[in-house]
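Thought: the user asked what 3-oxoacyl-[acyl-carrier protein] reductase looks like in 3D. I have the sequence; next I should run the structure tool and report back without guessing.
Action: structure_tool
Action Input:
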Amino acid sequence: MIKNKVALITGGSKGIGYGVAQALMQKGVNVAVTSRSEDAANEAAKHLNDNTLTGAKAIGIAADVRDFKSQEKAIETVISRFGKLDIIIANAGLGRFGSIENLELKDWHEVIDTNLTGVFYSIKAGVEALKKSKGYFITISSLAGTNFFAGGAAYNASKFGVTGFTQAVMLDLRQHGVKVSTIMPGSVSTYFNNNEPSENDAWKIQIEDIGKLVVDLLEMHPRTLPSKIEVRPTTPPSK
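Observation:
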């Protein structure tokens, strides 16, 4: 049973993070969703609270995963509000794409600092709370974390890093009763890379599918740990 547990979801104001928050609240999990925008975080929390039927509560927190102090403050806010922290979903991420000749330094640093260093900061800030609750740390990587492509140098590097980082953290923390998994989605219907979700995205993985997968992980018997999960659309368009 995961009812009454407490989850922090980075980048939870939209897309995959929001879908995960919805799925968790349907199971009675209290959630904190973060965004760099305070308005976006609070608006997402309001929508979540307006649509829950389980009594679970959502709060919004303005936080930047690229700033360790900001992540520490987010963790402190969650514990102050709910008294504990059971689950961290390290979801915040972005993409900047282009050939290595054209990839700008600022784009490289933004991708690496958000997608990889941000995951490190999230677990580093929350590790003691998760050890105390014998909780769960889940990262959202990507199939791009094992499959490279032209124009993806920064994004591939960040997601290859997240995949490897998460597996190493899993080995570090399982001795403390903390479970660690990474989810590696293919194409998901989100706003990622300036996409506008529409009927044309019907073939893609939907955010509720990732939410269901997170719930399944959390409800897995404690003796079993799916540590790395690849998930892809069943029938992508023919090329």
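Thought: the tool returned a structure. Summarizing for the user.
Final Answer: Structure for 3-oxoacyl-[acyl-carrier protein] reductase predicted. The first strand starts at residue 6 and ends at 9. The two ends are 43 Å apart (CA to CA).
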